[in-house]
Amino acid sequence: MITIAVPQMGNDLFRKYMKGKYVSSLSRAGAVVRWIELADPTAAAKEAASCDGLLLPGGADIDPARYGQTPQPECGKPNALRDAAEFVMLDAFYRTGKPVLGICRGIQVMNVQAGGTLFQDIKGTAACRHMDFRSRGRSIHRVSVTDGTLLSRIIGSGEHEVNSLHHQAADRIGDGFTAVAVSEDGFVEAIERRDHPFCLGVQWHPEHMSRKSQTQRKIFAAFADACSK
What distance in Å separates the CA atoms of residue 6 and residue 162, rounded to the nearest whole number? Predict the structure, then answer.
């Protein structure tokens, strides 16, 4: 059985609902989730590295201090527990060479860990809807995927319809990464690490669309397939 490490997101009712979307999406791809407790970052990294893959899920904003900025009023309250553990987990996982998939907050963790920065809030400059929780199960804007990339091999190059549940986005791209998809209004929607066989981050939430969308299911299927090897 393919086992995917996922940082613990919490156990209140809302987070149980959100966690269920990752579990069901990975289950359809033939993988199971191992929730990693985060109180001890070193232990969390060791346990995660024993799994076949790492999925960094959505969640709270990252502390701007991690990318050299002071918090703006629009920035949400960081999750200190996740911030402390996920960067250590990601660094440890890179050393294994095993596949990594980042979703929403996950793509931002990947970018910041590599020295990149974030827009702390895009609502004032975005021309598309980028935060629409009510429409989480359906597409609300398009993204353009670059040809010749890992993402294009998974879902195809050109335009795709996605949902959107974020108010932040990658700004300067971190070392070793390339932006491989952008939204209609020019924000980075996916990045890949160039020296890694499968290291992909997407800004949208395929787990909320995967039950009905064959395109979004392909992301989890490709991730699980890479993990199986």
Answer: 23
Quick check: helix, strand or coil at residue 7?
A: strand
Query: What's the pLDDT at 129?
Result: 87
204/189 Cα distance (integer angstroms) = 7
Report strand pairing: 141-145 vs 158-162.
antiparallel
Q: How far apart are alpha carbons 187 and 88 in whole angstroms? A: 27
What length does the chain have? Answer: 229
CATH code for position 126:
3.40.50.880
Burial of residue 31 (CB within 10 Å: 0-12, 13-18, 19+) is buried
* Letter string b/e over residues 135-163, b meaning 16 or more CB atoms within 10 A of that residue's CB: ebeebbbebebbeebbbbebbebeebebb
Q: How many domains does the chain have?
A: 1
The parent domain of residue 164 ranges over 2-228
List Cα–Cα distances, 225 to 68, 99, 102, 222, in angstroms.
36, 10, 16, 5
CA trace torsion 87, 89, 91, 95 (10° rounding): -170
The strand pair at 177-183 and 141-145 is best described as antiparallel
Q: What confidence score (pLDDT) does residue 108 get?
A: 98
How far apart CA 106 and CA 86 sit, in angstroms, is: 9
Report residue 11's pLDDT band, with 50, 70 and 90 as the boundaries. Answer: very high
Instruction: Output the pLDDT for position 186.
Output: 96
Give the whole-number percent of the chain exceeding pLDDT 90: 95
Q: Active-site positions?
A: 104, 205, 207
**Residue range 16-20: mean pLDDT, rounded:** 96
